[in-house]
Specification:
about 70% helix, 17 helices, mainly alpha
Length: about 400
């Protein structure tokens, strides 16, 4: 092939790559056709019992046509397409392939892929777990404007993953991410201000950050804002607003919002007291892993609020709350266990007392009968002697 031919082929490839790159955003939002070949998931790093874990939530469906276009664009070096393929692979639990595509895209400086690759290194998904590399990729993504990367750096310092635990540094990174508009970082920063974790306690700042997250429709931000209104922290107590925000949060399936609604119904604040409705909300929240809701279910069973008292069920729910990370439930778990043992001993003593009473009555009757038989025998013997004489 001569030089003009090579030039034409290169130009055609560039035109094709540009056309595919321009079409990708539209195709990502277009309705799927011809059947779903895969899904594009939502990827998040959660705190697990043995360290960070990758949480993959099924997201929007991806059609075979979309997948094919991404593969074609990725073959031409399109970073966005490579990242899309990484997300699809992670959604299929093919972590090695997902990390591979994320690396290709990240090396081109594509921030979402840098975040995905950092998450893979952080959780050991498809690559050996390496906190230092995870932090490096998150820093690169943050320098490219990614709020999610800044939020992950804050999470790394907050949990001490590969670095000394430092809530102050975590708050600083959460503030950077929150300023970029990360609702998750806004909620976490608000929480730190509400309890004084790494920052000076400031309920007003907590309310401000929770309100910013809630304005974005973040369910946890709505639940936290509802709690601030319910308790009157950083703002005037307003049970009506608490009910409003709890309901907004619960409507999105947030366990914290459902637990908040349950508390309002259990205490009768802002709504008529109704233990059955409270129990329903608590159990819904508990099914979503909300430790506080598990404790509240145990509390209702322990004190018989709207249900017959049942210490065994209370103990089981307190144990679930402890296993889910609620340290305050330990005291009530010990108390329920003690009361169960005490009730057992009381019942055992009662049984022994009744059994002892029955034995004493039987022994008295037996002695009385024996004495009566001896009297009768003596009378017979005496009559015999008298007849013989």
């Amino acid at each position: 092939m001569n030089t003009s031919t090579w030039t034409f082929v290169a130009f055609a490839n560039l035109v094709l790559a540009a056309a595919l790159a321009a079409a990708l955003p539209a195709m990502a939002g277009a309705p799927a056709s011809g059947g779903h070949a895969a899904v594009r998931p939502a990827i998040e790093v959660r705190v697990g019992p043995d360290g960070p874990v990758l949480k993959v939530t099924i997201g929007e469906p991806v059609s075979a046509a979309q997948l094919k276009h991404w593969e074609m664009a990725a073959a031409l070096g399109d970073a966005n397409a490579e990242n899309m393929l990484a997300e699809v692979a992670l959604g299929r639990r093919d972590y090695a392939r997902g990390a591979g595509w994320a690396r290709k895209s990240a090396l081109r400086g594509y921030a979402p892929a840098e975040v995905a690759l950092g998450a893979c290194y952080l959780t050991g998904s498809g690559v050996p777990r390496n906190y230092a590399r995870a932090l490096r990729w998150f820093r690169r993504a943050g320098s490219h404007g990614s709020a999610a990367a800044d939020r992950y750096i804050g999470k790394i310092y907050e949990n001490g993953w590969g670095v000394p635990r430092d809530y102050t540094v975590a708050a600083r990174w959460n503030a950077i991410a929150a300023a970029k508009g990360s609702a998750g970082a806004q909620v976490r920063l608000g929480f730190q201000y509400s309890v004084g974790l790494g920052v000076r306690l400031n309920y007003q700042k907590a309310v401000r950050w929770f309100r910013m997250a809630a304005a974005q429709g973040d369910a946890m931000g709505e639940a936290e804002l509802g709690s601030m209104y319910a308790l009157g922290l950083g703002t005037a107590r307003n049970r009506a607003k608490a009910l409003f925000w709890y309901r907004r949060s619960a409507s999105q399936g947030c366990g914290a919002g459902e637990d908040g609604l349950g508390m309002l119904y259990m205490t009768g604040h802002g709504v008529p007291r109704n233990y059955q409705v409270a129990m329903r909300y608590f159990k819904q929240a508990a099914a979503r892993g909300e430790a506080q809701a598990m404790y509240n279910v145990g509390y209702i069973y322990a004190y018989g609020l709207g249900v017959p008292p049942d210490l065994f069920k209370a103990k089981a729910w307190f144990q679930r709350a402890v296993d889910a990370g609620d340290r305050h439930a330990r005291r009530d778990l010990r108390r329920a266990t003690f009361l169960i043992h005490l009730n057992f001993l009381i019942k055992l003593v009662a049984v022994l007392v009744v059994a002892g009473g029955i034995w004493l009555v039987w022994r008295w009757l037996w002695k009385r009968r024996r004495a009566s038989q001896q009297v009768k025998l003596a009378a017979i013997v005496n009559r015999g002697w008298d007849a013989g004489g």
